[in-house]
Structure formats: structure tokens, C-alpha cells
Amino acid sequence: MGWRTVVVNRNCKLSYKNDYLVIRSEELQMIHLSEIDTIIVENGMVSITSYLINELAQNKIKIIFCDEKHNPSCEMMPYYGSFNTSKKVTIQSKWKENKKKEAWQQIIKYKIHNQAMLLKKLDISGYKKLLDFKEQVELDDKTNREGHAAKVYFNLLFGMDFSREKENNINSALDYGYSIILSMLNREVVNKGYITQLGINHKNEFNQFNLSCDLMEIFRPLVDEIVYKNKEFTFDKAYKYKLINVYNKQVIIKNKEQYLSNAVPIFITSVFNYLEEIESKIVNYEF
Fold first, then answer.
1. Residue 262, Cβ neighbours under 10 Å: how many?
2. Is the dihedral of CA 205, 207, 212, 218 positive or negative?
3. What does the pLDDT look like over 237-282, one tens digit per residue?
4. Numbers of helices and strands, H then E, in the chain
5. 123: left (phi over 0), alpha (psi -120 to 50) or beta
6. The pTM is what?
7. Which of 138, 142, 158, 242 is the one with CA 20 to 30 A from 14?
8. Count of CB atoms within 10 A of residue 162's CB?
């Protein structure tokens, strides 16, 4: 698996030659496909060959396309990420309801725990209140401890006047960062042969990424940390690069330090193994 995130932000042509991504503009650049994890196309004047698109799909390299405001708007994923996708989708459609409720309970507990640990890391008092919410999470989070914890968490992080409903730099940055994480999850779900539409808790018929939205919850605090540390800055190109760099964030998972791009598939595998009764617990990460 590659490790580089390639951001294309100027007029150019992207093509393929001998296992290399070829970028043609004022100067010629070539990057071997084995080095690339994700390509983010920010400029609407970029042209890309169909041959390259096919090679990227075969190498499981994700392409994210941005809109006129340079925000992620869509992504490209192969139809089949695994040789046994049909089998995996059949299994996915038969996940037991009680196992999904138990999995969601664990995920929400981990999310609230990670939010609390971020507050503690940033030396923000009040994190123990979130740990209380964590212990109150019931099966399927039917009392919505997630929502109560989120209100306290964001108010502690960004102030009592902050709301996720407002249009401002902080929310724009959060949305951008979350979309990067979601894209990472989408790719790994497909790579493992599952489909993103069938979720654990999310069941919106208009959401193509219900499963990925479920899985990404525990990783949101990684984006929140970047936004908190840059909350006084304008949400510009340099700010976005800091958010894109979340790919290179290092966390501890299964007692080993891993880049986020490696930690995500470890977490996803543990969720799927739990739902299929192969493992008894879902893994979490540490900052």
C-alpha cells in the first residue's frame, strides 16, 4: 500500500506510463503508483486519461475530486475491491441485528472515550463528564449519549456559542477533515469486499456511505484536534493541507504505533470480525 497523498491544484494533464502517474504542466513530474495512497484533484481544469483511471482502480488508489470551493465532492472507487465480494456482501446482508446494536454501542463508547482523551490531551477541564456519558451508553445507544456528549464536547473545545449548525471557518474545516476520513473508510470497506450502503446504525436510503459513516465515528477527534490547534486561522489552502495530512497521523492500535492509513483497516477488520462472531471485541486506538 502506498503512503503518499498527491494533491493536484494546478492546470495539468494526468496520464499513465509504465506504472507511473505522469503529471504534465509547465514541467513534467512522475510518481510511481506503488508510492501513492490517494490523489486529490482540487483544480477543475485538470484532465485525466481513462487509461490512468483504470490503472488507479486496479491498484486500489483512491481519487477524490473537489468542487469549485476546493471541498471534496466525489470520489472514485472500483466496483469490486476483493475477489470474493459477492460472498462478503451476502454475509454483510445477514449481519444479526443484536450484533449490530452491540457493535454500535462499542463504537459510540470508543468515540466518546476518544473525545474525552483529546480534551485531556489539550488540558481542557471537563473531560471526566464525557467519561460519565461513556459509561451510560446502552445497547444501540438508545438514550443518545452520543448526542449529549457531543454538545458538551464541542462547547468545551470551541466555546459555549459554538454550534455545528452555523456557517463558519471551524465548521468548514471540520466538514473538510471529516470528508477526508470518510473517503479513507470508503476505500477500505470496498477493498475488503463489502459495500458502503449497508450500515450498522446509519440507514438513510439517500446515503451511499452508511457503513463508512458508522465506522468513521471514532476517528473524528483526530480531525477535531487539527481544527482546534488552527481555529484562529482562515480556512484556506494551507489549512486544508494540514487536514489532508491526517493520513500521516500516528496512533497506537493493538499495542503498536501505526499511521492512520494502516490503523483504519485494522479497526475495520475488527468490526467485521465482531459482526461475524470471529472476534469478541472491537479494537480502539490511542492518541
1. 15
2. negative
3. 899 999 999 988 999 999 999 999 899 999 999 999 999 999 999 9
4. 10, 11
5. left
6. 0.88
7. 242
8. 17
